[in-house]
Amino acid sequence: MTRPLRGLLAEPPAVVTVGASVLADALAAQAVPQVSVDWRPPPAGTEAALARIAADPRRAEANARAVSRMLAAGASLVDVRPAGELIGLEPGQFCHAGPPLAWEAASGPMRGALIGAMLLEGLATTPEHAEQQLAAGRLDSGAPIELVPCHERGGVGPMAGVVSPSMWAWVLRDETHQTTSWCTLNEGLGRVLRYGAYGPEVIERLRWMGAVLGPALAAAVRAAGPVDVKALIGQMVQMGDEGHNRNRAGTLMLLRDLLPSLVESGLAASEVARVARFIGGNDHFFLNLVMAAAKLQSMAAADIPGSTVVTVMARNGTEFGIQTAGTGSAWFTGPAGVVDGLYLGSYGPADANPDIGDSAITETVGLGGFVMAGAPAIVRFVGGTVRDALLTTQRMYEITLAENPAYAVPVLDFRGVPTGIDVTRVVRTGILPQINTGIAGRVAGTGQVGAGLVTPPMECFTSALEALAARAHSDVPAPA
């Protein structure tokens, strides 16, 4: 492992080696104290784009504005509503995670989730019937089937991220910037729709969530009033959650805030007990609220000309895509990578689908893999060591522009989480954003097979760099 330059002063005297490992390996073989700095030149062909962006007179102010807006964004839970009402989904329209996708390019878990959504909405009688219509691109009625990224509708979806009209969603509000975001309710782990499972137990659970859980939560939120989700995230980070794969404290704090209103909602005691048991037994329940809060934070930095800040990282199981503040809604994509992690039961790497989900929005704003130093227990779920977790967070400061004091990390003397990924820093350093995530089975209908660590493909950032350079206002010639 390597250490960041900022930590060198705390080290005993040693030889500093930079770049190629030949000298470092030789010194290590002789037991000579040495510090290895992980540096490498930018990818070949990016020099002109980096120079043009560096010369853009708007850049410093634009990036300062982007990160200040990200840090100022609020996130309050204000409602729970069916997706059909909330974002106007009609039968045959489905939102999904990641950049735009057609059925022909969809991975196994994405296909499985879409099949399940067709069954849930009563648009198909069997999985085969659902698959036939999805492949044809039309319902039996002749109405077209439309697949739309969640991000295009102002929301986010975990894993496959498939959203259909009858699914209920959290509604969060950022009063500072007067924006709203959403995310569906979390089903739990294992054989669930978002991991591509669509068996009878999956559909039965979703129907209960639509008939009982969603209305119960809506009644509780409306009675209790807005819940400050941003404050809860700040507390959970100090309690050992990182907001992506560990949400235990956040889930229990949410249940604490909503339970009195649930009890007073008029729902039968047996149903209140089932709702409380479902939430309390699902440590990932709060994840979807963190995602919607993170979406609000990233939205605040969108559409700022000259800014090189990343506003979206998302995966659809086939491609990984990013968006930046300076390029609006344009996607820059590369192939989704394979997650390196721990597997459930008898599953192994051969069973894994490539990376999938909008949940990397948490890392986009400094949570998840970026704050593993504050959640050392996460390594037991995604692999690695506590030292790896500490070093990962330290590396993420090298590619970000700010620190978020609202999410302070106790083990780092309450330093704010690294926030505001800068495309140019990623390209210049070669350090890719670290994401911790679940692993979906590659075969439709399987469900979750594990969890682990992954990074985006560098080509997402080099493509974004070229687009940003083409829009830069400077005297440096544009890349050929």
Describe this structure in words.
This protein has helices at 22-29, 47-54, 59-72, 83-87, 108-120, 127-136, 200-224, 229-237, 248-263, 269-280, 287-299, 361-364, 379-382, 386-396, 423-429, 458-471; strands at residues 15-18, 34-37, 76-82, 93-96, 146-149, 155-156, 168-174, 179-184, 227-228, 310-316, 319-324, 332-335, 340-343, 356-357, 400-409, 415-421, 435-440, 448-454. The protein has 480 residues and is an alpha+beta fold. The strands form six sheets. Strands 6-8-7-3-9 form a five-stranded mixed β-sheet. A four-stranded antiparallel β-sheet has the order 12-11-10-14. A three-stranded antiparallel β-sheet has the order 13-18-17, with no helix packed on it. The longest helix has 25 residues, at 200-224. It is globular, with a radius of gyration of 23 Å.
List the helices and strands and how they pair.
Elements: E1 15-18, H1 22-29, E2 34-37, H2 47-54, H3 59-72, E3 76-82, H4 83-87, E4 93-96, H5 108-120, H6 127-136, E5 146-149, E6 155-156, E7 168-174, E8 179-184, H7 200-224, E9 227-228, H8 229-237, H9 248-263, H10 269-280, H11 287-299, E10 310-316, E11 319-324, E12 332-335, E13 340-343, E14 356-357, H12 361-364, H13 379-382, H14 386-396, E15 400-409, E16 415-421, H15 423-429, E17 435-440, E18 448-454, H16 458-471
Parallel strand pairs: 1-2, 4-5, 6-8
Antiparallel strand pairs: 3-7, 3-9, 7-8, 10-11, 10-14, 11-12, 13-18, 15-16, 17-18
What are the salient characteristics of this protein?
Enterococcus faecalis V583 fold; 3 domains; 480 residues; globular; disordered N terminus; 5-stranded mixed β-sheet; 16 helices; alpha+beta; 36% helix; 4-stranded antiparallel β-sheet; v583 fold; 18 strands
